[in-house]
Amino acid sequence: MWIYINQLADFVGQKVTLKGWVANKRDSKGLAFVTMRDGTGFCQCVLAEEKLAASFEATKFLSQESSFIVSGLVVADEKQIGGFEIQADSFELVHESVDYPITPKEHGVDFLLERRHLWLRSKRQWAIMKIRNATIYAIHNFFQKKDFALMDSPIFTGSAAEGTTDLFKTDYFGQEAYLAQTGQLYGEAMAMAHGKIYTFGPTFRAEKSKTRRHLTEFWMIEPEMAFYDLDMDMDLIEDMLRSVVNEVIERCTPELQILERDIEALKSVNQVFPRISYDEAIAILTGKKEVNGKNAISLLESDLSTTKEKIEAIKAEIIEREIIVNDNVSKKGVKNFNRTLVGQLKAELKDLEEDERNIPQWIASAKNFEHGNDLGGSDETVLTRMFGCPIMVYNWPRKIKAFYMKRVEGNMDYVKGVDVLAPEGYGEIVGGSERETDLAFLLEQIHEEGLSQEDYEWYLDLRRFGSVPHSGFGLGLERLITWICKLKHIREAVPFPRTSQRLKP
Ligand code: 4AD
Ligand code: MG
What we know:
Blueprint lengths: L14 E14 L2 E7 L4 E7 H4 L14 E10 L7 E12 L13 H6 L1 H4 L3 H23 L3 E2 L5 E2 L11 E4 L2 E5 L4 H11 L1 E9 L12 E10 L3 H22 L1 H6 L4 H4 L8 E3 H8 L10 H31 L5 H36 L9 H9 L5 E7 L9 E2 L2 E12 L4 E8 L4 H10 L4 H12 L5 E7 H9 L20
4-amino-1,4-dioxobutan-2-aminium adenosine-5'-monophosphate binds next to strand 11, strand 16, strand 17 and helix 15.
């Protein structure tokens, strides 16, 4: 019977058939140990000449990524990857893969991105996509349990919502159209029909910036709720992140282990998220306000000296181990062990040296931060460094936020927006706000931004017919996955990334 690797536990002691690809192969006399991957997991298949007789000859075609079918007895074996082994009594080569370009040795990221269609098969990438799948499922789970209706907003749109600078223009039968930067304005209309809705769709921004956090095409989840104010909005965000991350930890423990993710850092979602106003955030960032007796600038300065100490220690260790690798006395196994370690240490060193270069710039940027500006990536890193969990920054200067945000009562230069910043240097993962309901003020904003009133008449109708206080937010799916998986770059959080640098494959 054909089963998948993740069903093996139910078939111990029985004969089954598995279909998949060669992830890895090791030969020894009369034996081939082949790790099969079938998309659900990994399993060692033992192909013995003794059992396979003449067909054993064909195991030599089982090169990396060749596809094959194997039948045999399922044996539980804790030492094996996945905990089981197949003792094959027959196998069939489906297709021989010759000279697979991605080998177990290290490849540069550009090389891998050019071959993204194949790279997706490798273990780390597979684990990330499993986590992406679980994250999407957990998000739907959360909103569906809370009775939110999933509604879809259009992708071709006739108007901007998040500023006009990063719009992708297309020719829509001779008329100018844009790819959606957000579904929010439509979400507001749908919330007036259904009370609580969420959209889940692709979003497009012509971001030229080459950062680790920006894609030109990303997926956004945008709930919108009638009769919610900013505090209720923040409660919902916190509730959602906690629920989604906990569900992913529970469902994806093996995948998080493949990524060597520190799960404790993710469990920080179970702490109460500190809510700090923009003004407080700036005071903390510039070192004028302390958090639990800690000062941002001095904390960074001590981070810098720890980094320098670590760099010296690692450099010394590399020298010591390289001596073993190159001497004439150590055994082959010992040399190999040390060689692998040197590789790991060098990667660690590279990261630390990057920190050593970055931290002084972060300090400078934090010290010189001008009140009224938007937080930059490094400012977010510095700020979240002060807390070990996600934080929410609310009440932002009106000038740096979108036209639809509601003004703060009694302080008209501020709006009721919120950004959620993830810890460990990941920065903004959610942006939301209470929406402005004052028709006259919205009109003023639309004119101030140089937008055409005609394009927004339908949106303004929402303030003309049964207008209610309402709020919502946008969660960047890939930003969340990047943090959950602790990726260095957002491009690994989506199957086929689109950035200003990349459109293919
Ligand atoms: O903060 P943003 O721009 O907010 C909105 O679009 C609102 N209309 C959302 C709402 O209130 N309904 O974007 C929301 C989130 C960001 O916090 C970030 O996680 C993600 O979308 N995001 C990006 N992710 C990847 N690449 C980009 N270029 C992104 N731009 C925004
Ligand atoms: Mg934002």
